[in-house]
Amino acid sequence: MSKQIEKIKELVAKREKARLGGGEAAIEKQHARGKYTARERIEMLVDKGSFEEYDMFKLHRCHNFGMEKKQFLGDGVVAGSATIDGRLVYLYAQDFTVNGGSLSETMSQKICKIMDMAMTMGAPVICMNDSGGARIQEGICALAGYGEIFERNILASGVIPQISGIFGPCAGGAVYSPALTDFILMMENTSYMFLTGPKVVKTVTGEDIDSEHLGGASVHATKSGVTHFTAKTEEDAMALIRKLLSYIPSNNTEEAPRVECTDPIDRKEDSLNELLPDNPNMAYDMYKVINAITDNGEFFEVQANFAKNIIVGFARFNGQSVGIVANQPSCYAGVLDVNASRKGARFVRFCDAFNIPIVSLVDVPGFLPGTGQEYNAVILHGAQLLYAYGEATVPKITVTLRKSYGGSHIVMGCKQLRADLNFAWPTSEIAVMGASGAVAVLCAKEAKTKEDPKAFLAEKEDEYTEMFANPYQAAQYGYIDDVIEPRNTRFRICRGLAQLATKRQNLPAKKHGCMPM
Ligand code: HXC
């Protein structure tokens, strides 16, 4: 055997060893937990054969607590580039089979390298987390490693999309890398995220709680809103990430991929002409509207189980990706509150950062009153949504279906927040407030002087309704560009988006705004 062949064999053997991560026993253990390994995850996610791995032979340099004996080629993370649907992505997967995926200085260097490459190339970064956190034996060097990653997360924000999958533990300060990224996906039952684990919680607050109830996928999908997606299986998770990527561009200078549209843009949806109940206080399901107007009725929802009174997600019109923000009358009458405002604001900002037009479907009775809201700073959170809409320079089309009252009218993409096209269904009620509230303020004193105060107030309510519960006052002042037949909504949005394709709008020069937080 020539020396060259010998060296090549050595390389092949080293590669094979590296591919085993923490070794066969550790892989078996990982499988027994119902989890895939880092390399298996990458293979499942990317186009077949497209993964190009870097730093496969990198080793940690720690000698504390016997770490010199715990050396594995590549250390606890697999990192590199690949393609998804033919588009370049950079990605890394923490390898739990190597020292519990705990983050070493070396791992941080590997991760930062691919993050830097992603920024240079203008490609998304996908991080798959499955780690015991900072590698304890490395002390400050491990912490510094996190710091390096966080800083890159921050600098990459709004430049390239960043997606985090949580496939196992993600605890302590380690949660802040996912938290700084644009989208988080958590595995149901096998992942958790929290700042302090159950034992510390018990010591500090006395609460008895397990990992799942403290920071499992369902908690973060429904209560905290930390996660945007959950998945039952890792296969589902990978399909979800691929689908998400199909709606978004690779960086902030590009447009999202356009797909061929087989759904006629002038498709009239007669069902919409008969969708709204006669009683304006009765609910209907906003999903019916979304599914009726988007290409092939498709809608890719984000944060589906959090703050269900507002719906956000991606869809396409004439093959073009858009972000939909819609009030949901069938959940708390579509009222805006702290969580709905946070959810909407974050989504609008993502769309704006990545050149994705925003289509808003409005049916909102106002902001939720009460101490629960006020004490939790609904003022500031509402202002976040307002700020996000007002700052967004992407094409913005707002369709008002029914109620659009008071502050919530302004917040939800009104004309003064530089929406480009504002349409209203004939059923719209665009006013300072609803009839009964308005009449109570305006006519209560006078009612007391009447023989039949109730009848008087009812008469005044009718008068108010006649005057304000329609779109024509707003249209009269040009705050609504057109009143449209509901069944034409799809066509008007498609044509509007085509018209707005060349939109150019800038913000005043500044370092950055001071968003209310
Ligand atoms: C070094 C670690 C480790 C860590 C796990 N391991 N976490 N090594 N540093 N942080 C090692 C274990 O010693 C073990 O090594 C192997 O990984 C697998 O771990 P097990 O405990 O056997 O697995 P399991 O029973 O599944 O439990 C997983 C776990 C647990 C829940 C993650 O290991 C754990 O509680 N780890 C510590 C978590 C933690 O407190 N991390 C620090 C958080 S603070 P061997 O050789 O036996 O296989 C933090 C600060 C970040 O991260 C700050 C950023 C700003």
TrEMBL record:
Residues 264-511 form the CoA carboxyltransferase C-terminal domain. One of its GO terms (cellular component) is acetyl-CoA carboxylase complex. InterPro entries: AccD/PCCB (IPR051047), AcCoA_carboxyl_beta (IPR034733), ClpP/crotonase-like_dom_sf (IPR029045), COA_CT_C (IPR011763), COA_CT_N (IPR011762). SUPFAM superfamilies: ClpP/crotonase. One of its GO terms (biological process) is carbon fixation. Residues 4-260 form the CoA carboxyltransferase N-terminal domain. Pfam families: Carboxyl_trans. GO terms for molecular function: acetyl-CoA carboxylase activity; propionyl-CoA carboxylase activity. PROSITE patterns: COA_CT_CTER (PS50989), COA_CT_NTER (PS50980). Keywords: Ligase. Belongs to the AccD/PCCB family. This is Propionyl-CoA carboxylase beta chain. It comes from Leyella lascolaii.
